[in-house]
Specification:
Helix content is about 65%, strand content about 0%. It is an all-alpha fold. The longest helix is centred in the N-terminal third of the chain and has 19 residues, at about 5-20.
């Protein structure tokens, strides 16, 4: 077993002892004492325990929120926030700590991770739109505009990695267009160089490039170009 694994196991053991004490101060101290990897391991433990013990779910969700609000979100956890269950569990923590725009070493926010996940398609656009409307909307709108180290926004990560030819359910399609509007509401234009990147990715996944394809309608709307231009790009 590596030193890193030993350290993470120790971090989990310490948070378990602190949770058993039922003292929030001890829980926060156990979390604060760890480095980024140790904190990520503790939060992963909270998530997995909450998922496996539904009667304790809210308790562990609150523990995660209290820890992150007090001492920050470890960047190592961001890439793992890539499906509904994980985002739902950590959403109170993200809100309490105002960590929506926080990025990891690749420049990705949790929305980059969520929207790029090919195993969950389509992403929960309607859920994110609801948060945008009713929660900390400006912070989430800023998150939609964050560009990672490849200069891709979260929605562009969806286009490059997860967009496919299956038509979106109407409520998700409506929500997606609402997110596009929110991202571009500050009049910051899309980077048209990225359109070539997106088209190349679609071609690599053998997605048909024709004007009848909903996929291309979405892409054309995002980049504010005629759909025929998308089909004819080289």
């Amino acid at each position: 077993m590596t030193q890193a694994s030993n350290n993470q196991d120790q971090a989990i053991a310490e948070i378990i002892l602190a949770i058993r004490s039922k003292a929030l101060s001890k829980i926060l101290t156990a979390y604060q004492a760890q480095d980024d990897k140790g904190r990520a391991a503790q939060l992963k433990f909270c998530y997995e325990t909450g998922e496996s013990q539904p009667n304790r779910y809210a308790d562990y969700q609150n523990i995660a929120a209290q820890c992150i609000a007090a001492h920050g979100l470890p960047s190592g956890i961001i890439a793992g926030l890539n499906n509904n269950d994980r985002v739902n569990f950590f959403m109170p923590a993200l809100q309490a700590s105002e960590s929506f725009t926080q990025t990891n070493h690749q420049g990705n926010t949790f929305l980059h991770a969520l929207f790029a996940n090919t195993e969950q398609s389509p992403p929960p656009f309607n859920f994110i739109r609801s948060l945008l409307l009713f929660e900390r909307n400006e912070s989430l709108a800023k998150t939609l505009r964050v560009r990672n180290q490849n200069k891709l926004t979260p929605l562009e990560c969806y286009f490059v990695y997860a967009l496919n030819e299956q038509p979106l359910p109407e409520h998700e399609l409506t929500a997606l267009f609402a997110l596009i509007e929110a991202e571009q509401s500050d009049n910051t234009p899309a980077l048209h160089d990225n359109l070539l990147h997106v088209k190349a990715a679609l071609k690599n996944r053998n997605i048909t490039l024709n004007t009848q394809n909903q996929t291309l309608l979405i892409v054309a709307s995002y980049y504010q170009v005629d759909i025929n231009q998308v089909c004819q790009l080289h």
